[in-house]
Amino acid sequence: MSYRMTVTATKIIEEIKHLTPAEQTEIIQFAFKLAKTRPLAAAELNQLAKRMVASDDPLEVEKLKSAISRGFYGEEEHA
């Protein structure tokens, strides 16, 4: 038998507020790691692509190309 509890982001955030600073640091580190490794949603990739096409700055274009690539494939986790 499987039970699934619905927990919203708002509830999670409220719980995080009550954690110790050390536990909050652990949550922050997890969130950064998750953000770096997960592929972006189509809407997020679309926004990056629009910014890249609209940019006249070659450096920004290269940064956005890199962000799109990371966003499409995600980054590999490093130990």
Overview of this protein structure:
This protein has 79 residues and is mostly helical. It folds into 2 domains: 1-37; 39-79, no CATH class. Helices cover 70% and strands 0% of the residues. Helix 3 packs antiparallel against helix 4 (58-73). The model has no long low-confidence stretch (mean pLDDT 87).
Layout of helices and strands:
Blueprint: H1 9-17, H2 21-37, H3 42-54, H4 58-73
Helix pairs in contact: 3-4
Question: Outline of this structure?
Answer:
The protein is mostly helical and 79 residues long. It has 2 domains: 1-37; 39-79, no CATH class. 70% of the residues lie in helices and 0% in strands.
Outline the biggest β-sheet. Answer: none
Overall, the morphology is elongated
* Beta-strand percent range: under 5%
Which bin fits the share of residues in helices? 55-70%
DSSP, total strands: 0
Mean pLDDT: 87
* Tally of individual domains: 2
Structural class: mainly alpha
Query: Radius of gyration from the CA trace?
Result: 17 Å
Number of helices: 4
Low-pLDDT segments: none
Order of helices and strands: HHHH
Query: In whole angstroms, how far apart are the ends?
Result: 36 Å
Essential attributes:
elongated; 2 domains; 79 residues; mainly alpha; 4 helices; single chain
